Amino acid sequence: MKVKTKNVLDLTDLSHSELMEVIRLADEIRKKPSDYADSCRGKILATLFYEPSTRTQMSFQTAMLRLGGTIIGFDNPQNSSVAKGESLKDTITVVGGYTDIIAIRNPMEGAAAAAAMYSPVPIVNAGDGGHLHPTQTLTDVITLHNEMGRLDNLTIGLCGDLKNGRTVHSLIKTMSTFKGNKFILISTPELTIPQYIKDIIIASDCSYEEIPGLADAIPQLDVLYMTRIQRERFSSEEEYQRQHGVFILDKAKMKLAKKSMRILHPLPRVDEIDVEVDYDDRAKYFEQTVYGMYGRMALIIKLLEGSVKEFPPRVMPTHPFRCKNPKCITSSEKYLPGIFREAGGDMLICKYCDGRRLI
Amino acid sequence: MKVKTKNVLDLTDLSHSELMEVIRLADEIRKKPSDYADSCRGKILATLFYEPSTRTQMSFQTAMLRLGGTIIGFDNPQNSSVAKGESLKDTITVVGGYTDIIAIRNPMEGAAAAAAMYSPVPIVNAGDGGHLHPTQTLTDVITLHNEMGRLDNLTIGLCGDLKNGRTVHSLIKTMSTFKGNKFILISTPELTIPQYIKDIIIASDCSYEEIPGLADAIPQLDVLYMTRIQRERFSSEEEYQRQHGVFILDKAKMKLAKKSMRILHPLPRVDEIDVEVDYDDRAKYFEQTVYGMYGRMALIIKLLEGSVKEFPPRVMPTHPFRCKNPKCITSSEKYLPGIFREAGGDMLICKYCDGRRLI
Amino acid sequence: MKVKTKNVLDLTDLSHSELMEVIRLADEIRKKPSDYADSCRGKILATLFYEPSTRTQMSFQTAMLRLGGTIIGFDNPQNSSVAKGESLKDTITVVGGYTDIIAIRNPMEGAAAAAAMYSPVPIVNAGDGGHLHPTQTLTDVITLHNEMGRLDNLTIGLCGDLKNGRTVHSLIKTMSTFKGNKFILISTPELTIPQYIKDIIIASDCSYEEIPGLADAIPQLDVLYMTRIQRERFSSEEEYQRQHGVFILDKAKMKLAKKSMRILHPLPRVDEIDVEVDYDDRAKYFEQTVYGMYGRMALIIKLLEGSVKEFPPRVMPTHPFRCKNPKCITSSEKYLPGIFREAGGDMLICKYCDGRRLI
Questions:
Q1: Which residue of B70, B88, B315 is the best one to mutate when testing the C interface, meaning the one whose CB has the most C CBs within 10 A?
Q2: Quick one: which of A289, B110, B337, C119 could link to B317 by a disulfide (CB 3.0–4.6 Å)?
Q3: Which of C183, C180, C275 is nearest to C225 (CA)?
Q4: What residues in C contact B93, CB-CB < 8 Å?
Q5: CA–CA separation, A109 vs A353, rounded Å?
Q6: Is A337's Cβ below 8 Å from some Cβ in B?
Q7: What is the mean pLDDT of residues A278-292?
Q8: What domains are there in chain A, each with its CATH number?
Q9: Are C55 and C49 in contact (CB under 8 A)?
Q10: Which of chain C's residues have a Cβ under 8 Å away from the Cβ of A275?
Q11: CB–CB of C329/C107 below 8 Å?
């Protein structure tokens, strides 16, 4: 089955059945990697990393190399003439002429969507600021699929900074498309999940519950998805000192968990999982990175399948406005057309960054 | 036909017929790339970039990868131990031992010529300061050959900073070896072309005309070669504000041009070509980068054809003098022998940077 | 013959016969490289360089590429998210999941040993601070084997900073395992070799002599191993000015040497070998880097032979102490268990950095 999308800017660019196909292919590659050792022979992946993210970049690179393809790219904005004086449009147009597929990471929200407007080759979003990071979610879903044997009827604890954590939001969005999942949301009052994510769960066949401490939540979990809480997110240093331990996973808390529970983490971790837990068989965050590599291999194969180099048609502005989000790619790349979808009333939603503004 | 030169420091290192052969081969590769997918299997290209130039580096890298070869290199002078404490001679000797061909970029003029004195493998000059950049000119010529169908009897407009633009000088030198080309030189009075370039045209079967504004020049052009004018090149800010628009290519000026005209630009551009012009079919500056990749593929094949690793014979100084050009590679690499050719009278011309000094 | 060690942290990880086998294989590859052009097809080498060392990194990279393998990695600590916020343990665990073999360079002593405790794939130490650099010694030994035709009964001069030079210490340790070698130690009084290296020579079938000037020592040498003396190592600027020329190899001193003498240097050099000496046939320091590439090829082949991805068993602390060496990797990576061997009396020797402390 060929996927219909040319680009993966968000994981929702894949239909439910396309996602299942990518998961299935990742599994097949993992079992017989040698069958795929020449799948991308002669193809070149560009990893354009406008901010460093060594592990994500290495995951894409090894994925392409293990398919027999080759790699070019940069990871050093200060050092790159491309990253400096040139528009994203021009860089993408030129690199798209050289290569066959581009993975882009950029601190500005919507950068991958902007790149896709000009690229003759598939664009994979490898993270655009705090906005989207679909291959991390793909990684998470493949890990769940393999470690739990199913993607539905799971009780999934999500612990840490649920307010700002894009991987958490994206994982909930995707897992809400499966039936009967229950999300246990574990965070400080300041770092609870945004209302719009709750709305997504409510509208789905899934449910959620909020529990303020990890020890209280852990006994019922099938899966525990840990994330960082940054010190500066707490309301004060006293608050940090008082609360911080409540969200750290250690051997003591692991004693309260089911034998079949699995621990995931998008990495890198700081201190939210004690090193002792690494030796617990339920810890799967390192296996998770390997699943991620296979997921990226599957995605690259699917996007290159029958791919033809072709510039996308010109996109015209939908409204005579600019997005007001200072982190939106349109705020730094002025030539980008203002494109919005109408969200009812006077509300517009920016196509690039999903930022909202009034007409 | 094997090329005679071991290195390409300037495009003039290729004879006229060798250049035509490289152009022909680039065209053949472009039409049937799969025939060349293993041409350099087992060969390694080093890209030694002592100053970043991401696009040029990527063009060399993809060229080598598309020939089945592999790549190593650096692009980060501050970060590279090679670039720091070690002489160019030692770095080239060592890297020449590891690899099969070297593309070097260096801010000092004559650096590639110096590298060639010590390298056991072919050296391609990927830019030595403001001096030479032969693969850009090869790119330009291949683009003209393909887009215009011929390299003679063309009316070629060159617009921008004609005083300091090495790509413009190099293109005129090469195109002057073909018959009947007419160069229309479009620049401010401060940024006109050097007399020695005019002398080259006069001595050839070509001609030139100087026209101070782009709108006046454009109707007669077969080709418009745009380049940047840097703000600081104008005599004053007022002068910049007054003149600057005269050299910007926009939709209005495009209306004055022939339907068959082609626009080239060595990229990156700043604002001298309006983004609107990108959607005009006559804009060929992005295709140009792809032609450049094929040109570099052809050049790599030709230079590796029958290449044998061998250190060049030692070169002794011709005169007991040093070059006085502070940007000459001999000013930073003291062990380099002083080599000059005599230009009549007491005048010497430095072999590395083409700088002049009196005996 | 498969080597028994999974990792090469020090050259002593190879038995005497394994070392001879690696030397033999390097020689075979050098003679028929095409026989090995696919030896590592499908395998990925990660070069994790926490401090830049471009030449060493390029040597590993070309070694892997010439075996048909591929490469990923970083060389830029400031720029790498891996190098920044993440523990060495986590980085190694993840990169070991992606790749097949890791070459690591790190400014902290014992970093490679620490990496090996967590890596599912072979670790090659590409330099851990001033501690060990086994592939440099392998390079030196292969050069001697090829240039001298034997590894025993050689009179080997070692000139420069013998106090701090890890390559010198390591070379003496390895060459002391062969019979009848005589080490001529040439240095200032401040930079003489440590007593423990002398003890190793005394305990072997080899001998040593200390001679304070290069001119006095050179006539009897079969091999001269030159190293840098850093200006700041002299007791004063006057001392530097007075002594420094005594340790510089130039044409005049070469006249005193045997015709069959060979000059080695680990590179990069500063000014301790005059450029004129490069043209003397006895200079072998550039050939040495090529031997090093073949040595690394042989080592990679041997370590990957029958290699299975497997996490090493957990290592528990041997003592309730920490190493006191501030440059020891355990001082920055706090989770590392304290592991010591007892050296008699109350003395402990740190397993990572070989630092000593009392119980």
A1: B70
A2: B337
A3: C183
A4: 286
A5: 5
A6: no
A7: 98
A8: 11-129+290-304 (3.40.50.1370), 134-281 (3.40.50.1370), 329-358 (no CATH)
A9: no
A10: 89, 335
A11: no
Residue A79 and residue C79: Cβ atoms within 8 Å? yes
Please tell me the distance in Å from A90's CA to the nearest CA on chain B: 8
Question: Inter-chain contact C52–B97, Cβ cutoff 8 Å?
Answer: no
In chain A, the percentage of residues whose pLDDT exceeds 70 is 97
Residues 1-60 of B with CB under 8 A from C: 42, 44, 46
CA atoms of B25 and B23, how far apart (whole Å)? 5
Q: For residue B2, give every residue at least 6 positions away whose Cβ sits within 8 Å of its Cβ, in sequence order, or none.
A: B302, B305, B306
Q: Do B76 and A76 touch (CB under 8 A)?
A: yes
Shortest alpha-carbon distance between residue C191 and chain B (Å): 22
CA B358 to chain centre: 28
Q: Where are the beta strands (DSSP E) in B91-181?
A: 101-106, 123-128, 155-159
CB contact under 8 A, A268 and C335: no
Task: Output phi, psi for C153, to 5 deg.
Answer: 55, 40
Burial of A182 (0-12, 13-18, 19+ CB in 10 A): middle
Residue A190 in contact with residue A233, Cβ under 8 Å?
A: yes
CA distance C318 to C339: 5
* 0.90 exceeded by pTM: yes
Spell out the per-residue pLDDT of chain B, length 359, in tens: 789 999 999 999 999 999 999 999 999 999 999 999 999 999 999 999 998 888 999 999 999 999 999 999 998 766 666 655 789 999 999 999 999 999 999 999 999 999 999 999 999 999 999 899 999 999 999 999 999 999 999 999 999 999 988 899 999 999 999 999 999 999 988 889 999 999 999 999 999 999 989 999 999 999 999 998 777 777 788 877 877 778 899 999 999 999 999 999 999 998 899 999 999 999 999 999 999 999 999 999 999 998 999 999 999 999 999 999 999 999 999 999 999 999 988 999 999 999 998 88
Tokens of B235: 């005599």
pLDDT in tens, C238-250: 877 877 778 899 9
Which residue of B58, B105, B275 to mutate against A (max A Cβ within 10 Å)? B58
How far is the C-alpha of B86 from the C-alpha of C264, rounded, in Å?
Answer: 17
φ/ψ (deg, to 5) at A309: -70, 120
A95 to B58: CB separation less than 8 angstroms, yes or no:
yes
**B269 and chain C in contact, CB less than 8 A:** no
CA distances from B166 to B169, B194, C14 (A): 5, 11, 55
Residue type, A323: C
CB atoms within 10 A of CB B204: 18
Task: Measure CB to CB from residue C79 to each of A52, A55, A66 and give the nearest one.
Answer: A52
What stretches of C126-230 show up as alpha helix (H) in DSSP? 134-148, 166-175, 195-202, 214-217
In one-letter notation, the amino acid at residue B6 is: K
Contacts of B53 in chain A (CB under 8 A): 81
Handedness of CA C27, C31, C35, C41 (dihedral sign): positive
Name the residue among A70, A76, A314 with its Cβ closest to that of B65: A70
